[in-house]
Design brief:
Helix content is 8%, strand content 39%. It is mainly beta. The chain has 2 domains: 30-129, Immunoglobulin-like; 139-400, no CATH class. The strands form 8 sheets. Strands 16, 17, 21, 22, 25, 26 and 27 form a 7-stranded mixed β-sheet that branches. Strands 20-19-14-11-28-29 form a 6-stranded mixed β-sheet.
C-alpha cells in the first residue's frame, strides 16, 4: 500500500507539473491593425491602381493569407493587413497602374516581392516600393557621351561631351525648364565618405546644374524626337579628326565668368546656369564615375538656391572637417537618372536607390582607355520605345557607337 501511494503521488506530481506548464504556455502574439504601404515610383502623379493581387506568406509556418484591395492614400496605396500571427513574412504584390509623368500619360504592370519582413505587435507596418518599372512616357536620357576621344597621336581629348534627351511619350512635350544635372559625389570607393547630412533619400547632391531656358512652350519636342546638349558646340573634328561635329546641337553649356571666363561661347543657344562647382570650364566625368539626371525645375533660380543649398560635411581621418559645396535637386523633380561607375570600383550609390537601382560601367578600371570615343546608350524594346526600369544595369549599354560620330 505504501508503495502504491508513493507511485500515485508521483503520478499526481507529474500531472501537476504538466498542467502547470500548459496553463503558463505563451500564446503566440498577433498583429492587428497592420498596414502595408504600396509606395509608387517617384515623379509620377494621378496614379490609379487596378488588377491587384497580393498575399503574405508566413516564413515559419508556410501559411498564406490573401491581402485585401488597397485603398488610395495620396499617390500611394495602403493595404489594411488582416490579423496575423507575429512572425516573418514574404509579401507578394502584383498589379497595374496608370499615371502621369511630366505631363505625359503612362501605364505599366508591376510584380514585387518583399522577403523576410518582420511583423509584430510593435512593428505592424511596412512598405513595398514599386521602383522598378517600365515607364514609357516623358523625357529620358537616351545617350550620355562623356568619355572624350583620342586624337590620331593617341592623346586624350576631353572637350567633346554631349547628352541626348528624348521624348519617349506619344505626345508633344516641352523642354523648357528641363535641368541637366551632374552629381557632386563620385561612385568610386574613395568618394564613399560619411557625409552629414545624407541628402540622398530626398534629393540629388548636385555639383553642376544647367537649365534649358524658355517660357514653357518655346521648345516643343515631338514624340520620339530628341534634344542634344553639347558641352562645347563646335566642330571638334577641326582639332581632332576622331571627334564629333557638335555645331548642330540644340544647346550648349557655357560658363560666363566675365572677363576671366576660360569658356568659349559658340553660336548655339546657351543652357541657363543654375549652379556649378567651377566657374571656369565644366568637364563632364571622363572617368565615368558620376551620376547624371534630368529634372523639371519647379521654382525660380533664386528661390531654388535659397531653399536647396545645404553643405554636407564629414571629419577625415586627419581630424579635418571636409565640406561638399553643392545644391540639392528634390527627387520628386527628377525625370530620369543614370549611375555611372567603373567595373572594378563601384563603391556606393551617389543618388537615391529609388532613382536608379543599378549602374552602367563605362570602363573596366582606372587605366582603361578603350572607352574613349564611345558613348552610353539606352536600350529600346520591340516597339521602339526606350526602356526605363529605373535600373541602369538593365536599361543602358556602354561602349556604343556615338550618334554624333560621322
Amino acid at each position: 500500500m505504501m508503495r502504491k501511494g508513493i507511485l500515485m503521488g508521483v503520478v499526481l506530481m507529474v500531472a501537476g507539473v504538466s498542467l502547470f506548464s500548459c496553463s503558463n504556455e505563451e500564446v503566440p502574439a498577433v498583429v492587428e491593425n497592420g498596414e502595408i504601404k504600396l509606395e509608387m515610383p517617384l515623379n509620377v502623379s494621378d496614379v490609379v491602381l487596378t488588377d491587384f493581387e497580393g498575399t503574405v506568406t508566413n516564413v515559419q509556418s508556410g501559411v498564406v493569407t490573401k491581402l485585401p484591395a488597397p485603398v488610395k492614400s495620396g499617390d500611394d496605396y495602403v493595404i489594411k493587413v488582416p490579423t496575423l500571427a507575429e512572425g516573418t513574412y514574404n509579401i507578394y504584390t502584383k498589379g497595374s497602374i496608370t499615371f502621369v509623368k511630366d505631363g505625359a500619360d503612362g501605364s505599366m504592370g508591376f510584380e514585387v516581392t518583399s522577403k523576410d519582413v518582420t511583423l509584430s505587435e510593435t512593428s505592424s507596418s511596412t512598405k513595398v516600393v514599386i521602383n522598378s518599372f517600365k515607364a514609357e512616357s516623358g523625357f529620358v536620357l537616351s545617350e550620355i557621351c562623356t568619355t572624350g576621344t583620342l586624337n590620331p597621336q593617341g592623346k586624350n581629348y576631353n572637350y567633346d561631351a554631349y547628352f541626348v534627351i528624348t521624348n519617349n511619350s506619344d505626345k508633344v512635350l516641352y523642354a523648357d525648364s528641363l535641368l541637366l544635372i551632374e552629381s557632386q559625389y563620385q561612385s568610386s570607393s574613395s568618394g564613399n565618405n560619411p557625409w552629414s547630412p545624407d541628402v540622398r533619400p530626398y534629393a540629388i547632391p548636385a555639383g553642376a546644374v544647367f537649365m534649358i531656358p524658355g517660357n514653357g512652350t518655346d521648345h516643343p519636342v515631338n514624340p520620339g524626337e530628341s534634344i542634344v546638349i553639347a558641352n562645347n558646340a563646335m566642330d571638334h573634328t577641326t582639332v581632332n579628326e576622331k571627334s564629333y561635329d557638335l555645331t548642330g546641337a540644340d544647346f550648349e553649356v557655357y560658363l560666363d565668368n566675365g572677363g576671366n571666363s576660360m569658356d568659349t561661347d559658340y553660336e548655339t543657344p546657351n543652357m541657363e546656369y543654375i549652379w556649378c562647382y567651377t566657374q571656369t570650364i565644366w568637364l563632364p566625368s571622363v572617368q565615368q564615375n558620376r551620376s547624371y539626371a534630368i529634372a523639371r525645375m519647379k521654382e525660380d533660380k533664386e528661390t531654388f538656391l535659397a531653399n536647396h543649398s545645404v553643405t554636407p560635411t564629414y571629419v577625415a581621418s586627419t581630424g579635418k572637417t571636409m565640406e561638399s559645396k553643392q545644391v540639392q535637386i528634390p527627387n520628386e523633380w527628377v525625370l530620369d537618372a543614370v549611375n555611372l561607375g567603373t567595373e572594378d570600383d563601384f563603391g556606393w550609390y551617389v543618388i537615391s536607390y529609388g532613382l536608379d537601382a543599378g549602374f552602367v560601367a563605362g570602363r573596366a578600371n582606372s587605366k582603361d582607355t578603350t572607352q574613349r570615343g564611345t558613348s552610353i546608350k539606352r536600350k529600346k524594346d520591340s516597339d521602339g520605345k526606350y526602356i526605363d526600369t529605373n535600373n541602369s544595369t538593365n536599361d543602358m549599354e556602354a561602349r556604343q557607337e556615338p550618334s554624333m560620330k560621322k
